[in-house]
Amino acid sequence: MADDIPAETAAPASSAVPGEPGVGTASLEIQLTQVRVPLQDAAEALSTADAAGRLPIIVLPQQALRIRNELVIGGVIVAVLGLVLDLQLAFRGGALGIGALLIVLGVFQSFVVPVPEGSQAVLLRRGRFDRTLGPGNHFVPPWLIVSHIVTTRETPFDAPAVEIPTRDDVRTNVDILMTFRIGAPEKFVFTISAPDFDQICQATCQEAVRLMVREKDSNEILDLGEADATRLREAIGVSLEPYGAEVVRVVLTHVMPPLDFVASREARRLATLQRAEEQEQHALALLRQNDREELTRATIEGRRHAIELEATNEVARLERLEERIRLYPNAMHWDVETMRLDVARSLAANTRAMVQVGPGADVAAALLNHTLPENGVPPEPAAGRTADAPDSGAPPASSSRPKR
Questions:
Q1: Which of 151, 167, 162 is CA-nearest to residue 202?
Q2: Predicted confidence (pLDDT) per residue in 117-139, tens digit
């Protein structure tokens, strides 16, 4: 089918001015095409892509009149031969019948107009628009000419826009995918051709994207969403409506600021995340330190309370002890003397022990007076004490040896 594409479909790609906002730095290929084929091949032409993978949106019939000339001419030739040649009556009648049949078939084909599914046919009467026909086979008089077969399916259209400046002059590449439907075929075919409509779509999409991006800062450009796509669809739809085309949807497929800007933004976000993490760790460390200090204070408070309780108990014990001593002095004296007697008895069983005999003396005091010198001079032995060996080498004044 590529050989059938007329010269007007191979329109040159739009030239680009390097660095100019909204215009690509490389030439843009034509995406919308039209082909010229016989009317009966329109369905195949609309579903067959060319070498570049493009499906045509308009089919132009090769012949304005739908009469099958080859059948009519063949029928006339057969009928003339049947009349001119000297044939038998049966052969001559057969030739005339075949010729008439071919002529009828060739003329009858002109009354039937096949319209492929997903398309509409534009009819002309005396060179002016008459009406459109939907999908199916239609009985149409031969004097109504089928001028175009126009697809009514959704057609995708890719519109890249390169180096569009934002409000803070950061040049951004934006690529959108628009789908449109030809709702008024008669308005479309008589207003513009498919290649020219391609350029109109490119310019309209780039202009709408440029106006939208120009109103946004670089920090907002990567957050384009459904609201921005709806805005683009409405803006592009208003521009394409005079051509009979309806914009169905717009999808933002690619938004890319300069790589240095993206790297800088990622670094800032990473630094922000790291800072937030450090603050969380610092807050956690403070909480742990506060918990340790609170635990230490609680421990100290517990110990202080325990000491105070112990001191209170000791004071209470001593107070009760003094009260008992005051109330029962004889019993207290009896207990002390009994303990002294028990100690003396225990020491009496030891041959090396000392025994203090007599009232008002303390065994521990006697031992200290015996063993510890005072001012370097050994103490004088007290009367009535007994030691294993005297300090001066002389026997004591009075001594007694414990019984074994």
A1: 162
A2: 999 999 998 888 889 999 988 88
